[in-house]
Specification:
The chain is α+β, with helices and mostly antiparallel strands.
Length: 697
C-alpha cells in the first residue's frame, strides 16, 4: 500500500507492507532517488518505574546508498558519525513530546538511508517516515508530524532546496509540526531578520500540512488499533505530600542559588519518602508526584506574580562577565559567565594539515572551522566518568558552530584552520548559548578577523490556558518545567542560528513573534557587554603559526617539489616550516611560528621559481666555458648564454683569455626566446654600470 504527494515535480511516496513486516510500523519513504526505510518497535510490556518516554531514535546512512565502500580497516559502517547523531536528534525532538502521558514502553525508531540521491532531503524524509510509522502502528501517538526544509534565494522562499539551491540560499531552516502548529525549528541564516523568520515558518507550515495529510491517508489504508495507556495520577498521594511540605516548599523552591535550591528540595523530598513509603508506594511514585507539585508551584508564581525562582522578572538577564586572554600559551581564550552558567573557550589556529576530513555520502568534505563542546560533570556538581562526547555535546557544539559560521573569514582572507573548544565549567541554563558568546570573544582574542561578534540567548515559555509568559535567559529548572526551549543567536544585524523545541502541542505565531522580539533585545544587550570587553581582533599570538602566501607559476611547482620531493624536504629540514602547495593555482603557503624561518623558506622558493627579467643586470657566476662563449648562472637554477661577442667591447680570440669557471661577473639579459632560453651580455652590463656611475658623480 502506498500514498503519494507531488512536491516540486517529484513524487513523495509513503509505502508500507513490503519491507520489515515484523515491526509495529514500517514505512519506506521515497522522493526522487532518495529512499529511507523508517521502522518503529515498542516492547509488549511496559517498563515499570519509568516517568519519562523511553524512546531511542537512530538515523543511519548506509554507504552502499551512494555507491560507496566505507573507508578504514574494517570496510563497514562503525559508530554513528556526527551527522547521523545530529539527524537522530532532529527526528527525536518533534516526535518525543507527542507521546501520551504515562507511555512507558521501551521504543526504538530507526531511519535507514537505502538510496541517496541529490535531493538533499534524507533528514526531512526521516522525520516524516518515523512519524508515519508511528501513525500506522499500535503505539499511541498524538501525531502525525510533518517536516520541510526552507531556503531563501533572493527574496523568494524555496521548499526543500536541493544541493545546488542550498549553495545559493541565505537561509537553512528545518521546520516540523503538527496540523495545528509548529513544534520544532532548527537552522542557520546569514543575519536574517525576525520578520523573515516568521514568514519562513508560515511558509513551512503550509507545506507541513500536506505531508501530514498523506500520512493520514496511509493510516486509513494500513493503520492498526492503538494500545490503551492509562495515566497514573494519584491525587491522594499528592495531597499527602502537600500536607508534609506545605509552608516549606516556597522557601526551598525560590532560593536564588541553584545548589542551595536543589539541596533544600532534596531534603523535602527525602522527608516525604520517609513518611509515605510503603510496599505499594515506592520512592519513584513519590518522587514523580513531588516533581509535579514543584512544577505547578513554579509555573503559577511566574504566571500570577511575574517572578522566577531566582527572583528575576520574565525579561531580565542574569549578570554577565566577560574576560579574554586569560590563558597565556593559548592562541585565543575567553571566559564567559552568565549567572551560574560559565564557559571557558579556547581558540587554536592551525594549517591546512589540521583540516578535518569528513567522509559523507556526498563525498569528502574538508572543514577549516570546527567548534567542540564539552560538558564536564563538575559543572553541575556531579561525579561521572569522562567519556567520548555524547549526543547532547555533539548537538550543542554543532548549534554553536552554525551560529558562528557566517562571521568566520574565508580561507582566502584568513588561511588558517580554526578549532574552538568550549569547556563548560558551570551550568544552569543554556550552556550552548554561553559557548556562542565565549567563542566569539575567544576568536577575536586569537586575532581571527570575524565580521562581527555573535551572541546567543535561550528563551522559555510558560503557558497556562490563555496566560502566556515568555522567559528570557532561562535557567535549567525553567527549561525542565517550562513549555519551550528556543535558542536564538546572531549579530547586531540579524539572526545566524536558531533551535526551538516545545513540550506542548505547538505555539502560535504571536508567541513566536514575541519570543523573537524579546530575544533580539537580550542579544543586543549581551553584544554590548561583549564589545566592551573586546571590540576588534587582536594581533596574532606569538605562539600561533604565521602563514605566508606566495604565488608562482603552476609549471614551477615541480621545481619546488623536486624529484621524489627532494627539494621541498630540504627546505623543510633547513627552516622547520610547514609548506602547503596548491598545484593548480600555483599558491604556496608557508607556516611557522618563527618569522625568520618563514622568510628564509620564502627566499629559497623565490630563488627556485624566479625567472630572468629582460633588460635587467644580474651578478652571475660562470659555470661552463665553451669555444663560442660561457654559461653564466644568474639565479639558482637559471643559466644564460654569454656569447663570445658579448664578453667585451674589443674582439677576443678565446673565452678563457678573459673568463674562467667560478668568476662572478655582471651580465645583462638581452634576449629571452620563446623556449625560455636566455642570452646575456657582459659588455652591455659594463657600459650601463659605467653610465650610471658617471651620472651619479
Amino acid at each position: 500500500m502506498e500514498v503519494e504527494l507531488d512536491i516540486k515535480g517529484k513524487k513523495l511516496v509513503l509505502q508500507t507492507g513490503v519491507f520489515a513486516k515484523q515491526t509495529n510500523g514500517s514505512v519506506l519513504v521515497k522522493y526522487g532517488d532518495t529512499y529511507v526505510l523508517c521502522t518503529i518497535v515498542a516492547e509488549k510490556t511496559p517498563n515499570e518505574g519509568v516517568d519519562f518516554v523511553p524512546l531511542t531514535i537512530d538515523y543511519q546512512e548506509k554507504a552502499y546508498s551512494a555507491g560507496k565502500i566505507p573507508g578504514g580497516f574494517f570496510k563497514r559502517e562503525g559508530k554513528p558519525t556526527d551527522r547521523e547523531i545530529l539527524v537522530s536528534r532532529l527526528i527525536d525532538r518533534p516526535i518525543r513530546p507527542l507521546f501520551p502521558e504515562g507511555f512507558n514502553y521501551e521504543t526504538q525508531g530507526i531511519a535507514s538511508v537505502l538510496s541517496y540521491g541529490d535531493e538533499n532531503i534524507a533528514d526531512i524524509l526521516s522525520i516524516i517516515g518515523i512519524s508515519a510509522a508511528l501513525t500506522i502502528s499500535d503505539i499511541p501517538f498524538n501525531g502525525p508530524v510533518g517536516a520541510v526544509r526552507v531556503g531563501l534565494i533572493g527574496e523568494k522562499f524555496v521548499l526543500n532546496p536541493d544541493n545546488e539551491e542550498s549553495e545559493k540560499s541565505s537561509l537553512n531552516l528545518v521546520v516540523a509540526g503538527t496540523e495545528e502548529a509548529v513544534t520544532m525549528v532548527e537552522g542557520s541564516a546569514q543575519e536574517c531578520s525576525e520578520e523573515i523568520l516568521i514568514e519562513a515558518l508560515k511558509f513551512a507550515h503550509t507545506h507541513i500540512k500536506e505531508t501530514i495529510a498523506i500520512q493520514k491517508k496511509l493510516a486509513l489504508l494500513a493503520g492498526k488499533s492503538k494500545r490503551e495507556i492509562k495515566a497514573q495520577e494519584d491525587e491522594n498521594l499528592k495531597e499527602a505530600i502537600l500536607n508534609i511540605i506545605s509552608g516549606k516548599i516556597e522557601n526551598a523552591l525560590f532560593l536564588q542559588k541553584k545548589l542551595e535550591r536543589q539541596q533544600a528540595l532534596e531534603e523535602l523530598l527525602n522527608e516525604c519518602i520517609q513518611n509515605l513509603s510503603t510496599e505499594e508506594i515506592d520512592f519513584l511514585k513519590i518522587s514523580s508526584a513531588f516533581d509535579k507539585i514543584v512544577k505547578k508551584i513554579m509555573r503559577q508564581r511566574i504566571v500570577k506574580k511575574g517572578l522566577r525562582v531566582d527572583g528575576r522578572k520574565p525579561d531580565e538577564i542574569r549578570p554577565i562577565t566577560c574576560m579574554v586572554g586569560i590563558l597565556p600559551r593559548v592562541h585565543g581564550s575567553a571566559l564567559f559567565t552568565r549567572g551560574e552558567t560559565q564557559a571557558l573557550v579556547a581558540t587554536t589556529l592551525g594549517t591546512s594539515e589540521d583540516e578535518q576530513k569528513v567522509d559523507s555520502l556526498e563525498g569528502e568534505i574538508f572543514k577549516t572551522f570546527m567548534l567542540h563542546y564539552n560538558f564536564l560533570p563538575f559543572s553541575v556538581g556531579e561525579v561521572k566518568p569522562l567519556r567520548a562526547p555524547g549526543r547532547r555535546e555533539i548537538g550543542h557544539g554543532y548549534l554553536a558552530e552554525r551560529a558562528l559560521q557566517y562571521v568566520i573569514p574565508s580561507k582566502d582572507e584568513f588561511p588558517y584552520t580554526i578549532r574552538v573548544v568550549s569547556d563548560i565549567l558551570e551550568s544552569n541554563g543554556s550552556s550552548s548559548m554561553a559557548t556562542v558568546c565565549g567563542a566569539s570573544l575567544s576568536l577575536m582574542d586569537a586575532g581571527v578577523p570575524i565580521k562581527a561578534h555573535v551572541a546567543g540567548v535561550a528563551m522559555g515559555l510558560i503557558k497556562e490556558d490563555d496566560e502566556v509568559v515568555i522567559l528570557t535567559d532561562i535557567l535549567g529548572m525553567e527549561d525542565h518545567y517550562g513549555d519551550m526551549d528556543f535558542k536564538v543567536a546572531g549579530t547586531e544585524k540579524g539572526i545566524t542560528a536558531f533551535q526551538m523545541d516545545v513540550k506542548i502541542p505547538g505555539i502560535d505565531y504571536e508567541i513566536f513573534k514575541k519570543a523573537l522580539g524579546q530575544a533580539k533585545h537580550a542579544r543586543l544587550f549581551i553584544l554590548e557587554k561583549m564589545y566592551e570587553t573586546i571590540s576588534q581582533p587582536k594581533e596574532l599570538s606569538p605562539y600561533a603559526p604565521r602563514i605566508y602566501k606566495i604565488q608562482v607559476k603552476p609549471e614551477k611547482i615541480r621545481d619546488i617539489i623536486g624529484t621524489g620531493g627532494r627539494v621541498i624536504k630540504s627546505i623543510i629540514e633547513e627552516t622547520g616550516v610547514k609548506i602547503d602547495i596548491e598545484d593548480k593555482e600555483g599558491i604556496i603557503k608557508i607556516a611557522s611560528s618563527q618569522e625568520a624561518s618563514a622568510l628564509r623558506a620564502i627566499e629559497i622558493i623565490k630563488g627556485i621559481t624566479q625567472e630572468a627579467e629582460l633588460g635587467r643586470i644580474y651578478m652571475g657566476k660562470v659555470t661552463r666555458i665553451a669555444d663560442f662563449g660561457a654559461f653564466v648562472e644568474i639565479m639558482p637554477g637559471v643559466e644564460g648564454l654569454l656569447h663570445i661577442s658579448q664578453i667585451a667591447d674589443k674582439r677576443i680570440h678565446k673565452v678563457s683569455e678573459v673568463l674562467k669557471v667560478g668568476d662572478e661577473i655582471p651580465v645583462k639579459v638581452i634576449e629571452i626566446d620563446e623556449l625560455g632560453r636566455v642570452r646575456l651580455s657582459r659588455k652591455e652590463a659594463l657600459r650601463e654600470i659605467e653610465a650610471r656611475t658617471i651620472a651619479k658623480n
